[in-house]
Design goal:
This protein is of the alpha+beta class. It is built from two helices and ten strands; from the N terminus they run ββββββββαββα.
Length: 150
């Protein structure tokens, strides 16, 4: 599972779906949700999860594509097993792993250290609140003070 920490920069609520714009290391992502999380606000830091099988890879994408989230990366590691390839890219988002078929890998002519673009559908990105270790310590201190007061 790919995990990316990002900041919410815009929320566009809608009747059918809502669009959430995120930013991480200068890279903007657009997430689509059928239900807007009640806890979510602009400025929040969130943890995004993207399954490896939901990351598409393109070397050259000359035509138009409906996937908005496109992140450039350099292929650092290739692992193959049976008919699948696990590809590890380094990008501005950090390390991103994609899982594609061996046939797609061969057709794309991917090689270690080559440049490629990762495509991620907004509906395939889940978000949840990000609580770092400092926030966890502060919450524990508050709970301890409340217990001591009682």
């Amino acid at each position: 599972m790919n995990i990316i920490i990002a900041k919410v920069i815009n929320i566009e609520p809608g009747e059918v779906v809502s669009f959430i714009q995120l930013e991480s290391a200068g890279v903007k992502l657009r997430v689509i949700k059928s239900q807007l999380p009640l806890w979510l606000s602009v400025g929040d830091t969130v943890q995004c999860k993207i399954n490896e099988a939901s990351v598409c890879v393109s070397k050259e994408c000359p035509g138009k594509v409906s996937i908005e989230n496109r992140v450039a990366g350099r292929l650092n590691d290739i692992r193959t097993n049976d008919s699948l390839c696990e590809l590890t890219f380094e990008s501005d988002l950090g390390e991103v792993v994609a899982l594609i078929t061996e046939l797609a890998f061969d057709e794309l002519d991917l090689k270690k250290e080559c440049e490629a673009t990762m495509l991620m559908r907004g509906v395939d990105i889940s978000i949840e609140p990000h609580i770092d270790s400092l926030q966890t310590l502060k919450l524990r201190e508050r709970v301890t003070r409340i217990k001591d007061a009682n």
